[in-house]
Amino acid sequence: xxxxxxxxxxxxxxxxxxxxxxxxxxxxxxxxxxxxxxxxxxxxxxxxxxxxxxxxxxxxxxxxxxxxxxxxxxxxxxxxxxxxxxxxxxxxxxxxxxxxxxxxxxxxxxxxxxxxxxxxxxxxxxxxxxxxxxxxxxxxxxxxxxxxxxxxxxxxxxxxxxxxxxxxxxxxxxxxxxxxxxxxxxxxxxxxxxxxxxxxxxxxxxxxxxxxxxxx
Length: 216
Known about the structure:
The protein is an all-alpha fold. About 60% of the residues lie in helices and about 0% in strands.
């Protein structure tokens, strides 16, 4: 029971912090605001977090909560590639519409500078466990190439998603993240189809005109 209560306390702090970040911005949110909103104590806050900056890494928790919501909503009969496209679209739609560019850029920058735990790379996250399940099932069903391991496919896919997020931040959010990923992610994933299936899927539509063709 104490362990469950501790987890609930930490989750309350995380949830409260992100509500405040969304509503009033990161800079205008204080530790005291988070403590008040979460109905916890200063001691509880500093038991789990060194300060407000430490909460940036918990954006990965927010992403995983979204994946938990998407699992029952996803058609289990979809081919593996289509499951990945579905998850990618839904998460990026949430980011495009609900996560500020500033917060995402802060998360990516803290992960680049972190010397210890890198939350985005935690293989125990719901994100990685779900991707491994989809990749392994897809290979067994003959929907994904088998000259690579499921873990290799997952690693490449996760790297692809991080690259899209990084580029979006680098470009200052000047194009629609979800519209762009809907265009290019199916093209990327086609390389993981078995040879016999690569010609069966349609080529991606033209890349949106508001997305720069090249980045310098």
